[in-house]
Amino acid sequence: MARRRSIRPPEEEFPMTPMIDMVFLLLVFFMTVSTLAQADRQVKLDLPESVSSDVPQDLADRGTISLDAAGQVYLGAQPQTFEAMQIAIKASLLENPKLVIHLRADRATPYHTIKAVLRSCAEVGAYEVIYATYQAR
User: pLDDT tens across 44-102, in order?
Assistant: First the structure.
């Protein structure tokens, strides 16, 4: 009598190559995003304190200008001249007419420098300015 061999289908191997490719792409994506997020980090400043300071819920339509104690103007983390700042604000206002300027000035920044930045913003049509402060305890 002849015995029948049991015929089992061969076990299928899970294709690992596409999964490895996907993990690699995700890794590259998150490395790139974190690098870009750090590149646009704001300048570290010692902001003044205010009792009536409030943290806004909606951060859309904001453009950030930073002033350090020496009076240097920054857009994001990039130092700018007043003229370059005005050109950037004007271009941003053309793209987004609801733009609100978020002014971050170090507590040691002379007021005449802050006034010059405000005047420069007003000259290009940015009239809404919010001052950044720390909440006083």
Answer: 777 777 777 666 666 677 788 889 888 899 887 788 898 999 999 999 899 988 888 88
End-to-end CA distance of the chain: 94
Domains parsed from the chain with CATH numbers = 49-135 (3.30.420.270)
* 66 contacts 43 by C-beta, under 8 angstroms: yes
pTM of the prediction? 0.62
Distance (Å, whole) CA 94 – CA 104: 23
Measured over the CA atoms of residue 75, residue 85, residue 119 and residue 109, the dihedral's sign is positive
